[in-house]
Amino acid sequence: MTTVRLPLFPLNSVLFPGLVLPLNVFEERYRAMMRELLKTPEDEPRRFAVVAIRDGHEVAPSAPGMPDPTAVPELGPTAGFGTDPVRAFHKVGCIADAATIRERTDGSFEVLATGTTRVKLLSVEASGPFLTAELEPLEEEPGDEAAPLAEGVLRSFRQYQKRLAGARERSLATGAELPDEPGVVSYLVAAAMMLDTPTKQRLLQSPDTASRLRDELKLLRSETAIIRSLPSLPSSELTRGPMSLN
Q1: For the chain, what percent of residues have pLDDT higher than 90?
Q2: Cβ neighbours of residue 131 under 8 Å, at least 6 residues apart?
Q3: Could you tell me which residues come within 8 angstroms of residue 69 by beta carbon, excluding any fewer than 6 positions away?
Q4: Which residues are 171's β-sheet partners?
Q5: Which pLDDT score is estimated for 195?
Q6: pTM score of the predicted model
Q7: Less CB within 10 Å around the terminal CB: N or C of the chain?
């Protein structure tokens, strides 16, 4: 088994391979992470792992807590994640490659990264200024009938987009070109749908592309039926989510 150790960035959202991740980094533990990544030569990937938080807080408390208003906020790399941080995170995440790490005058960072490879979380190390994790890369198997499933998912996704935009059946909600490679389709649709974090996490850790596409097909049909009766729901951006507050 080949493993890799990388800095770990827990978020209240799921990152998929191929998707863009903007970050506003202001906590000291993640500033330290970015300073360390900046030591990597520009011609080499500046990689860190993103995992979705199962039980914890993306941003550590910065004010006295309840029930004791005088309690000192927890600091350090594990702040907000309990005494055993590995239990606070979902077990499958995604490696991110930071194309841009820009330090601001106040010491915070503006980061733009892209998801690359799924990974399984094996262990978490908290001895340094930020969390690191031992990770096992997960291969993406196509599964059975991935290509025809992708075609069906794209058709259903277009209907879903139309319903979100309140468009008529004969018009397309977006002019964006959609891919036709099954794996890319499965990740793009998973990221673009308005789903809660546990459902997106389930899609990320699907055993193969075909299984993810089958799940998405059911979700798209169900969600489109719901939206049909609630046409005022807001639309979401196709390839990017909201910037994380770190």
Answers
A1: 65
A2: 7, 8, 10, 29, 77, 78, 85, 124, 125
A3: none
A4: none
A5: 93
A6: 0.82
A7: N
Beta strand pairing call for 92-103 and 109-125 = antiparallel
Q: Please say whether the dihedral angle defined by the alpha carbons of residues 157, 158, 162 and 168, taken in this order, is positive or negative.
A: negative
Residue recorded with tokens 């300073």: 35
Q: How far is the C-alpha of 93 from the C-alpha of 137, rounded, in Å?
A: 10
Q: How many CA atoms lie within 13 A of 68 on its CB side?
A: 4
Residue 154 token pair = 């794209």
Strands (E), 32-169: 47-52, 92-103, 109-125, 132-137
pLDDT at 193 over 90: yes
Task: Say which residue the tokens 């199962």 belong to.
Answer: 54
Q: Cα separation of 162 and 83, whole Å?
A: 46
Burial 101-122 (b: 16+ CB within 10 A, else e): beeeeeebbebbbbbbbbbbbe
Tokens of 117: 């490879």
Mean pLDDT, all residues of the chain: 85
What is the H or E stretch that residue 73 is in? Answer: none
Q: Which of 211, 162, 213 is nearest to 184 (CA)?
A: 213
